[in-house]
Each structure stands twice: as C-alpha cells, then as structure tokens.
From TrEMBL:
This is Uncharacterized protein. Keywords: Membrane, Transmembrane, Transmembrane helix. The keyword Membrane applies. It comes from the Archaea. The chain crosses the membrane at residues 20-39.
Amino acid sequence: MIVEILWKKIVKKMNKFKTLAILIVPLVGLIAIASVFVYDPVQINVKPTNPSIKFQAPPPSYPMSLQRTSRSAICYTDFEQMPSGWSNIGGNWSISPNEGYKGNALYGKDNDGGIGHASQYYWQTSISNYNSLWVSVKVKLATTNHDVYKGIALIDSNKTQLYEISIYNGELYIWGYSDKLGWNQFNNFSISNYNVNNWYILVVNYVYASSGISISAYVYDTSGALVASTSATIKGRYLFQPSYVGLEIDDVTNNLSGSGVYFDDFIISTTDPRYVNFLNVPQGYKIEVWDNLGNLINSTISTGDNVQLYILSDIVVGTGSGGSIIIGSNAGKYTLNYTVPSTDSILGGDTYTLTSGVLSFSFGANKTSINVSAAISGNTYNITGFILLSIINTDSSSCYAILFLNNMTGNMGSLNANIALYNSTYTSSNYIQISNGAILSNSTGWVSIPLNGYVNATFSGFFTQSSQQATLYLQLGYCMMPNNQGACVFYPVQITVNS
C-alpha cells in the first residue's frame, strides 16, 4: 500500500513534464539499441593491374618505294634473239637455244672474212662521242678441239683498224690491228686455272685522248673472282679513237678448224658495270637482287646511304628482262619488293634510289588499342612492307593471338594487301588478304605468344594508282588457348594507308 501511494505521487509530479518525458525515454532506448552494433573501422585498397598483353611501338621507318634514277648502259643484250641494230664483218653468227650462261647464246664462227682476217659482230651505232667506255661480255668455247681468240673489238670509223681484247689458250691479250701495219701484241697475262669448258667474263675499260689510248682488261670466273688482268697504253701509228664496239673471233688454225664461240651478257656502259648502285638506303638494311628465273644474284647489308652491290657474275641480270630487288630489315620481316617490268632489265651500272616511309601511330588507354598511319606504293611494281604492330606478353603463361579484319572504308578498289602474324620462330600460314578491294580472307592464323615473348603483325601491299587512301578496322584477339578457347580479350586496331 505504501509503495502504491509513493508511485502515484511520482506519476502526478511527472505529468507536469510529460512532454519532456516522452522525448527522453525514446532517446534512452535508441542509445541502448545502437550500442549493440558498434564495429571497428574497415579499410579497403583498390589497386588496378596493367593488362598482360600490350602493344609496343613498331619500327618508325620502313622502305616504301624504289625507283631507277639513272642508267649508264648505252647498249646491252642477253642474246635471247639476234639483236637489232647489229651487223657482222665476216663470220657466221646465229642464236643457239639454251647454250647461254642463262637462256640462249650468240654463236659465232670465224671465216677469215672480217678485219685482219678475223670476224666481227658489232653494234652499228657510233660511240665516237665517248672518250671513255666500259664493255663486258661472257665468252665460252662451243667445242674444245682447238682454242680461238675470242673477246671484244674496238673498231675505227673506217672499219680498217681495231683493238682486240681477247682470251686464248689461257692468256688474256691486248692486240692492235691496222690494215697498213698488220697485227701487234701490246700485252698479255696468264689466266689462273684456265679451263676451256668454262664461261669467262671479260671486262674492258678504255680512256681515249689525242696523245694515246689506255686500255685496261680484266677476266673473271663466273663466281666473280678475278683470274687475270692487264693493261696497255697505245700511241703512235696504232692510235685511233674507237667508233664501234663489237665481238671478235680469230681462228688462227691453218684450215679454220678451231672452235666456235658462245657469247652472252653483253653491255656497253659509261660507268663501271660490275656494280648496281643504291642511294638513300639506311644502315642495316639488306639489299638483294634476283633474276627473272628466281635466282639470287647477290646481296649485301647497307653500311650507309649509298651502296654498291657487286653483280659481275650476271651483269645483264637473268635473261635480260624482269627480275626483282628486295630491300628491308636484315631479319626479312618488313621489306620492299620491287619487281622490274618484263620490258626492262636490271643492269650493271644502274642506280636505284630508295624512298623511305615514316610510320605514325598512337596508343589507347593502357596500350590496348592502336591507330597506325602509313604511306605505301601507288603502283604495281613496288610492294611496300612494314611492321604494323608489335605486342608483348607479360602474363604468367603463354597465350595465342589472331587478327580479324572487320571493315574497310575509303578507296578500297585499288588496294591490294596481305597482313600476317609472326613470332620469333613461326609465321602464320594464313593471312588477311585483300585483292583490288575485295576481302579474300578476313583473318590470320593463330600464333602463340610465349611468356615475355612477342608477336608482330606485318603489312605488305600497294595501291594500283596514286592519291588513294583506305582505312582498315581490325581486332587483335588473344586467348589462353588457340581457336577461341579459354578466356579471350579483343583489342581494336585501326590502320590508314595512303599513296
């Protein structure tokens, strides 16, 4: 009872402050509830990782186009057929099929009907305006029963005098003949390891002045090795200025029983025809000359802008038409392939000038996309090649890459191109192929990217005309397993080419 009376008094007193009580009581309850859910602070750090496959900068410079800028040959023939503008002074002359160093050969047989009772076959155009020339020809005996003098004749304007530079019985000779004075030997030199069955290359250079004529003669085997050389300076009564150049045979046997002679690769040049010259070729680039039969004539590595390539073994390259020149990286992965038209030739003394291109490119975020711009050839003779992109694998294991061509815009109709993938040991057998704007194949094959290894994509192509532009939209895919197996990621690639 006492407790009840006390509680009533307390309640009555609190009724005076009922509003305050209502506010305080819930607050006390809320504090009690919240205290149950108090935690220590939690800290989270987010650290992005770089992609394991990234684009690398491709080589910025590449060989774009090649052009012949000078020719020093004023006459040349490979004797695939009887050349026009030639005539004979004595002798019997004809084409012998498949008897040449390559292809056909000119066959000659002496009949004592020419100057000095020898026989000549000469180019009818006068060379009297030249005080110095180079002449070269390949010679070989048709049979080996009796050797004959065989070589080059420098003939005067009246066709009564000549200088004969010839090979006979293992010797290199320089002779002079005048219808008034007869024959005179000016010099000779032994040919190393002479073999009557072999082809030999005869190279002659003369320099004429009113005081005398200097003649230098060289003999090489077909490997290009020098096997004999001699020279003479001629003055006095045997001196004349050459007006015609031709071939010479002189059979000195009593009954003309000596062998006939095969001739091939004839050239008259204002400069040394033993070399082809190349200008503006960067150091480290490889230069190759190929004939129209698919044979490599010679190659060299550039040591600077101007290069001489020794092609003595085939001065009139191949069978005298076509051929190709390849210039590019020593590894051979980005190259320029210049095809000589079948109506033209690669000749000793020619000069070619290289035009290089400069690749421009930009990467997207984290180097997972790339835009590339490049100039390429605007004619069918030059096929421009360069490394389009390079990717490196920094993952913990190897993976596999492939390129897809999704779309093209621009002047597609005149574009011809191949795009391939390769690593350090393998080039994809399949490649993206575009022919006159038509997509014949829209993907490369799969190529593995070893751990810390790389894969490059090469572009090789041309427009059939100048002032063209096309943009190609590609995707580079890489997967943990080939053939789209496992996790795969695709990176955008855009390339714009113009001529």
